[in-house]
Amino acid sequence: MAYLTFEEYKDFGYEEIEQDDFTKLITKACDFIDIQTRDFYQKNDLETDIEYRKKKFKKAIALQVEYMYQSDSTSTHEANTPQSWSIGRTSVSEASRYSNTGKNEAPSIISDDAIAMLSGTGLLYRGVSYG
Question: Which top-rank group of organisms is this from (predicted)?
Answer without folding.
Answer: Bacteria
